[in-house]
Amino acid sequence: NAGVMQNPRHLVRRRGQEARLRCSPMKGHSHVYWYRQLPEEGLKFMVYLQKENIIDESGMPKERFSAEFPKEGPSILRIQQVVRGDSAAYFCASSPSAGSEDTQYFGPGTRLTVL
Amino acid sequence: DAKTTQPPSMDCAEGRAANLPCNHSTISGNEYVYWYRQIHSQGPQYIIHGLKNNETNEMASLIITEDRKSSTLILPHATLRDTAVYYCIVLLSYDKVIFGPGTSLSVIP
Fold it and tell me: How do residues B8-62 score in pLDDT, each as one tens digit?
């Protein structure tokens, strides 16, 4: 069973461009969480999604950031008009469908660099 | 804010047991204790979790006090590859993980 997949692993964007980060959860997992780790800081929760639904977006910046988890395909974290302060490592985690085992398993992350 | 308190750093000799403490005095009855670690800048790695009982897996053991206000993660034979930041987290089912600063464990040759 492959783990959580994220791509790209490294992404370089210029200020004002768009960044799209993809997360493929583990097989059988229908819950996806996104976290951000700014340089020299801890991990911070951004958003929690189930298939086609946003459950908790309390950690998402109010502007320029959006997330989706469509019925088919990976979860996408989209950052519009990137700024230098968006440079960070973005991690997604997935957990299984409803049940007693809901451990979150993390992917390797996408390192975003904004020039 | 994280609901746990951990020492900021610890050292452990290679081959010895590493005992990482965690205080979670405000834990509620249905919150689990989870441990993750982050090696360098990799994605956090799940280690172990428990509710009330002590737990053991191939990576570590988790000892939870009877009152559940504290716990200890035990790495039985630490290796250099265990050098990482270890996070103790209390968590409801299907809830976001709130990471504190964790404990930076250095395994020394």
Answer: 999 999 999 999 999 999 998 889 999 999 998 899 999 999 999 899 999 999 9
**3-class SS of residue A47:** strand
Contact B68, B32 (CB under 8 A): no
Q: With an 8 Å Cβ cutoff, is A30 touching chain B?
A: no
Question: Which are the contacts of A45, defined by CB distance < 8 A and separation ≥ 6?
Answer: A33, A34, A35, A58, A59, B96, B97, B98
B99 touches chain A (CB under 8 A): yes
pLDDT digit string (tens) for chain A, length 115 residues: 579 999 999 999 999 999 999 999 998 889 999 999 998 888 999 999 998 899 999 999 999 999 999 999 999 999 999 999 999 999 999 998 665 568 999 999 999 999 9
At residue B84, what is the residue type?
A: A
Chain A / chain B CB contacts < 8 angstroms = 52
Report yes or no: A90 at the B interface, CB cutoff 8 Å. no
